[in-house]
Amino acid sequence: MTASSWITTWAGLVPAGVRVLDLAAGNGRHTRFFAGRGHPVTAVDRDVSGLAATDIVEVIQADLEDGSPWPLAGRTFGAVVVTNYLHRPLFPVLLDSIRPGGVLLYETFMIGNERFGKPSRPEFLLRDGELLDLVRDRLSVTAYEARLISEPKMAMVQRIAARLL
Ligand SMILES: C[S@@+](CC[C@H](N)C(=O)[O-])C[C@H]1O[C@@H](n2cnc3c(N)ncnc32)[C@H](O)[C@@H]1O
Fold it and tell me: What is the CATH number of the domain that holds 95?
């Protein structure tokens, strides 16, 4: 699967050379994308079978929802990237993981997506304005969208690009 157009559009906000955290990285489409731009990347997922460690890619296997300690305690990143994944209890630690000057790129499904298939359960769908609420008073918003997309498939998504000043 190719990188999300939201991520490729706003990748230029990420300062050159900073370490990127790709959370719930899946098969690593954004891990590879940022590594290809010369960023060291830390990719975390509970299933790391689709992720390959390299000289600049660190792969961490961790279940982010089973109550285990946060696997990146004490570490901060120049960018935190989350796509198609939502586990609200992680919101505070995600924000705390962004270093000054760093960027949050977050894109996932929102309410209304149930018309098009999965995910359809409320716990997996952002509420109206939820990503704006997440960063309010913490990050400066460069771009935000809540809309229907048709590629790679019809879906209702919310997405944000924001920076810690
Ligand atoms: C829909 S995929 C998105 C993958 C990637 N971010 C992308 O957009 O291509 C969701 C990912 O979340 C991971 N995931 C789901 N529950 C998880 C958990 N409890 N801990 C860690 N990763 C989890 C899955 O293994 C999967 O790789």
Answer: 3.40.50.150
